[in-house]
Amino acid sequence: MKFWKYSGAGNDFILFHGAGSCTLDNKLIQKLCDRKFGVGADGVLWINTEIKDHDFKMTYFNADGGEVEMCGNGARACVHWYCSRFNKKDTAFITNHAETYQGKLLADQLASVTMNTYRDADAIKVSDLIEAKESFYVNTGVPHAVFMLDDKQDIQSNDWMKLAPVARADSRFTKGCNINFAKLMAPASVIVRTYERGVEAETLACGTGAVAVARFLNQKHGWNKIKIKVAGGDLEATFDESDCWLAGPIVQVFNGEVDI
């Protein structure tokens, strides 16, 4: 079966195109995502273009084989794949969990998607998990705990990724939680590091995590364009009257075939 390997600011995916629901089981997804014995990726994307009312349906699986509701950088990969394949500049799509999105191909290796899901803000207390200047919980498609660091806390310290797995597995999170560390570098400019559930490691970028931080800064400071520095590159969140858009680099690294 043909696949396309994508990277969105270092957040990498194996993309499959098929009719109907995904035919890959959990063990196969784990094997495909294995960086030593498989293709290697943070997750798997399944695109179904044979649906009504939308251009395609996106289903996303983390590297552990578990299906999750949304992946921001994965969505941008799907937008790039669809627009490149069908010679379009924009698209409207739906996830397997019935959330609707819009996407735009801004350049050959630049894509953006709407990221309007924002719910359960502060529904779970997280301030006791890790010491930080400010902290909060929110769901921007998937659950996130965000820890805003102060001027004296070094965001590049290795200690954060030692604390993250413990916080991620805390019993208060019934479905687990992504753990984010963020620090302002300048007005409307922030650096973000994310430990992702399902990958169980720090990823080079996390779209929903970047949006969680950007939403907080937009509400607190009124900034409508926020630059987000991640380990794999630069993302940007833009807020207009009705939408939050997440933009950033997206590259089709290679394609190939695997026996399913």
Question: Would you write up a description of this structure?
Answer:
- This protein has helices spanning 26-33, 72-86, 160-168, 207-221; strands spanning 2-8, 11-17, 43-48, 56-62, 67-68, 90-95, 100-107, 110-114, 134-139, 143-148, 178-186, 189-196, 201-203, 225-230, 233-239, 244-249, 251-257.
- It contains four helices and 17 strands.
- It is an alpha+beta fold.
- The mean pLDDT is 97.
- It is globular and about 50 Å long.
- The chain has a 17-stranded mixed β-sheet that branches.
- It folds into two domains: 2-115 and 248-257, Roll (Diaminopimelate Epimerase, Chain A, domain 1); 134-242, Diaminopimelate Epimerase, Chain A, domain 1 (Roll).
- Helix content is 18%, strand content 41%.
Descriptive key words:
18% helix, 17-stranded mixed beta sheet, Diaminopimelate Epimerase, Chain A, domain 1, 260 residues, alpha+beta, 2 domains, globular
Please specify the SSE layout and strand pairing.
Layout: E1 2-8, E2 11-17, H1 26-33, E3 43-48, E4 56-62, E5 67-68, H2 72-86, E6 90-95, E7 100-107, E8 110-114, E9 134-139, E10 143-148, H3 160-168, E11 178-186, E12 189-196, E13 201-203, H4 207-221, E14 225-230, E15 233-239, E16 244-249, E17 251-257
Parallel strand pairs: 2-3, 4-6, 10-11, 12-14
Antiparallel strand pairs: 1-2, 1-17, 3-4, 4-5, 6-7, 7-8, 8-16, 9-10, 11-12, 12-13, 14-15, 15-16
